[in-house]
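Z., the sequence and structure:
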Amino acid sequence: SKTTTLEMDLAITKDLQVVVSHDPVLNRIITSNPNGTALVEDCVIYQMHYDDVSKFDVGIRPNLRFPRKKSIAANIPLFASLVDSVEQKSTQLKKSFWYNIEIKSIDGKDGIEHPDPNTFVSLVMEIVKEKQIENISKLVTVKEYASFIIFINKNIQKKKKNLKNHFKKYFDLYICVSCFCIGYFWGDIFVGVFCD
């Protein structure tokens, strides 16, 4: 396998389960209701328990943006379950994979589309530590108008002084304030970051 890195976005359910989803709402283009019909209304993941979220299919419907996509039944996975699957494959292939994890925190959406940033990061870090993937993970937190990148790496000790106050409890985090903007859309800043 030529794959080296898995990039993923995370969301949180009402019962505080960390799931893999690009958006905080179910995508109407690709999502089917549990009965197989097309999704016609917004379903906010943070307003639903995982048992309910897992009943929606996100793999069968075609997506015109990706015409070569295969139609395969799939649900939104728990982040922990995905890591377990990847690490099992990693053992089989005798190859490590990197995780590039992104969480989005949008001003005014705390408690609506996601928990507050501290809770969000804590829930993700709990799994990262439990699954012992700190040294092969990079967590990118995108905050509207204030983006930064967090490298989860126990080997980076000399830059601890750069830690933000609310992340200090994670002794192995190095935060680098973003300074390279590659896009701007309706007030949301999409950011790329270079760190040394």
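Helices lie at 50-53, 79-93, 117-130. The longest strand covers residues 5-12.

Let me know what you think.
H.
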